[in-house]
Amino acid sequence: MIDQNVWAGLDIGNSQIRCVIGEQSPSGGMRVIGQAAGGCKGLRRGVIVDREALTNAVADVISMAERVSGKRAQNVWVGLSPVYAYLQSTRATVNVSDEGHRVTRYDVDQVLAAARSATLPPGRQLMELWTDGFIVDGYDNLKDPAGMIGNRLSLEARAVVADSVTVSDYKAIVEGSGRLLAGLVLKPLALSAVLFEPEERVGDTVLIDMGGGACEIGYFSDNRLMRIGAVPVGGRSIASDIALVLKINYAVAARIERELDLLVQPPEDAMVELADYGYVESRQVSRLMLYEIAKSRVEEICSLVARELTRIIGEQRMLDHVIVTGGMLRNRGIDALLPRTFSRKTRLHITPLGKFADIGYNVAMGIISVVAGPEEKNTEESVETGEHREGFWRRIVHIIKDFWE
Fold first, then answer.
1. Mean pLDDT of 315-341
2. At residue 101, what are phi and psi to the nearest 5 degrees?
């Protein structure tokens, strides 16, 4: 039986799919009632190579989470990687319609609609609009201009712009599983909802998620997501390098990468027996060589992350906080290789949330936290401000109306 107060947060990774089922409480909050994880099939380096296989994998994981919760989630929210999206600053202006020059709710809706209709490059579509402030005849940084006197109403906002093909693929995959795609949530925003400490919500904070297929970056200013970026390479490339250098199959290399602390420097004479990790015949390789392969790859990834971070925040910008998380942090010894030049306060987050077994659930948990956040307590007359947006069901109506028709 479908319960309209139940929804799913879905994180489709390169190797794992994770789902968290949330239930809306009478007070407007959310509680987790189910979760599940399963292998990802049909996806290679973030590109869908077998839609049917991926659809079946997604359906299996959602169904497992539903069995744990005992309820069915009709609406599914999916995490969107910065690899397939960007933030765009935009400004829109309308004339005040009231004869007495008083800004009405109609004027606010009109300027929001004008911002949503901004021209985008081919193959891109607007997913969401976050307002930074309204302007009435030069008076700026207004949160709610309704009732003010003026001739022109302007809006400064950030638009979440996504790759149209990726959005269409996610929609087809979720609908192929028998559910509805309610919307997409940027992964850095989802993670910030569950990882940030109170002091990290003030000032300039960068969140770096070092995953298996990509490293994703979000830059926040006073808890508002201002810029995003990504490096399309992650921890799985370590196993690929080992397989290439040793001329062994990827499954053996992945097991070596998973079971050995490759970033901890070993004795020079230490050896590894490949047969112990599934290789077809007895063969020994230098443990030190494996260390050098893994270290070189991680150093390259960290260098790319630092370069992308410079592009996002600028050369000389000093940050208040940097939070680093993701599956790559499971590798012992990686902390010594991470870039620390942008902030004196760098925190590594490797602790699972609540009852979850690993940090892999953080994105899915963050998705439903964003969807069910404090915006549910707003009235129908509320205006979008920053990441505090319209009420849950009103958001679904807007998304379906603006994007899926």
1. 83
2. 60, 30
H or E element at residue 335: none
- Which residue, among 105, 108, 107, 129, has the nearest Cα to 117 in the 3D structure? 129
For residue 58, give the 3-state DSSP assignment: helix
Residue 153: which of 140, 172, 169, 171 has the closest Cα? 140
Residue 5 CB contacts under 8 Å (≥ 6 apart), including other chains: 23, 24
Q: State the CATH number of the domain containing residue 52.
A: 3.30.420.40
| 92 and 151, same domain (yes or no) | yes
Per DSSP (E only), the strands in 265-365 are: 271-273, 284-286, 321-325, 346-348
Residues 318 and 219 in one domain: yes
Backbone φ and ψ for 43, nearest 5 degrees, come out as -125, 130
Question: For residue 188, which of 153, 162, 226 has the smallest C-alpha distance?
Answer: 226
d(CA 220, CA 218): 6
Pairing of strands 139-142, 124-136: antiparallel
Report the predicted TM-score, pTM, of the whole model to 2 decimal places. Answer: 0.85
Residue 1 has pLDDT above 70, yes or no: no
**Do 229 and 108 share a structural domain?**
no
Whether 65 contacts 21, CB under 8 Å = yes
Instruction: Extract the tokens encoding 171.
Output: 């929609």
Rounded Cα distance between 66 and 23, Å, is 11
- Looking up tokens 């009405």 gives 104
Of the listed ranges 12-26, 305-319, 339-353, the one predicted with least confidence: 339-353
Q: Model confidence at 3, in pLDDT bands (50, 70, 90)?
A: low
User: Which stretches does DSSP call E strand in 69-197?
Assistant: 75-80, 85-95, 124-136, 139-142, 152-163, 180-186
What strand order describes the sheet that includes 139-142? 85-95, 152-163, 124-136, 139-142
User: Is residue 247 located within the same domain as residue 328?
Assistant: no
Q: Which of 281, 235, 274 is nearest to 253 (CA)?
A: 274
Task: State whether 210 and 311 are in the same domain.
Answer: yes
Measured CA to CA, the distance from residue 30 to residue 187 in angstroms comes to 19
> Which position has the token pair 């400490």?
197
Give residues with Cβ within 8 angstroms of 27, minimum separation 6: none
CA distance 147 to 108: 11
230 closest CA partner among 245, 210, 248, 259: 210
Phi, psi of 200, deg, nearest 5: -80, -10
The radius of gyration computed from the CA coordinates of the chain, to the nearest angstrom, equals 23
**What are the tokens at 264?**
């901890």
